[in-house]
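We modelled the chain as a single entity of 337 amino acids. Its sequence is:
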Amino acid sequence: MDYMEKEANAQMQKLLNDHSAFQEKFAASTDTYLKTKIREESIVEKILDVKTVDENHPQVQKDINSDTLYYLEEIEQDALAMEVAMRADAQPRWVDGKRYQIRPGKIESEEVKKNKMELRVADNIIKFIKENNVDAVNRVQDTVGMRTFRAALGITKTVLGMDKAGPLDFTDYTDSIDWTTGARKIDMVNLMNSIVRKELVPIRWLMSSSAYNVFSAMDSSEIGDMAGPIFKERFEGDILKMPAVTTIKSGLIDPLTGHNLFDYEDETGVYSDIYLFVDTDYLGRIIKIDDDQLWSEWKKEVFFWQTWRYSGLGLGDFRGISMMRVQLEGERGQQEA
């Protein structure tokens, strides 16, 4: 073995030793477990007002036909209302009258079980179990909420970038607005006007983080000030002087319909759905019965854990929702060309 080869082997061994030492220090600093995903609060709770009630609330009624509760709220004349129990398989129900009901349904996480030795070794595992359970419950709530918004859009057809000749087909992306060369202000304005023409006032955007990132390429004089916290459980900023709620749950899919609720990608490109809402006072609310509940129990040396909540969603007037479907990227071959 010549001198150069020995020197190369020595340097490689030093790198391996340094990497091993780094891994040990890094593992020690993170208490055995590393986070593998970003957790964020519920999306729909940023769009709708959340009211926590109990059986003694004056608007909470007892169903005489079943052992359940519901929240009863009046709506204005000409409003279009709908309600949905907040379960994974919940279907919206249309309301034609002066009042509508919000019936809370149960959302629960899977039961988690860990043996005592694993709990002893992993210092942060209980913390991660709590976070994962809450995140799972929020994800179901967001899926049902977004499904409800989509159902409302299917009635009003307040959409851009989709064929409105017949029933809305949320799996059809052929009519999407082309943003492959950048976001366009006029499209955002047209989306705003689709609500304004109903004599309502839009105040809040909802979109995936990938769609929001497209706006960063636009001049501030065109799109407005986008200053805001870059990382605070979600990316936030203003677009055309209205706050934008963004989510990292870009791949959220409705398990009932199989529809992508935000981003979609196939061989033709990358697409995204951008939503716009009026103020929650003119839209609807989420009703929760008490706070989230937690159950845990030891059986011999195994620890069991589960989280659940009773939650329902109602839209007192769903005319104040609009959506725009855009294409963010084209075919790979077109981009390379």
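As a brief sanity check on the tokenised model: The helical segments are 3-29, 116-121, 125-156, 185-196, 209-215, 220-223, 332-336. Residues 25-32, 227-235 have pLDDT under 50 and may be disordered.
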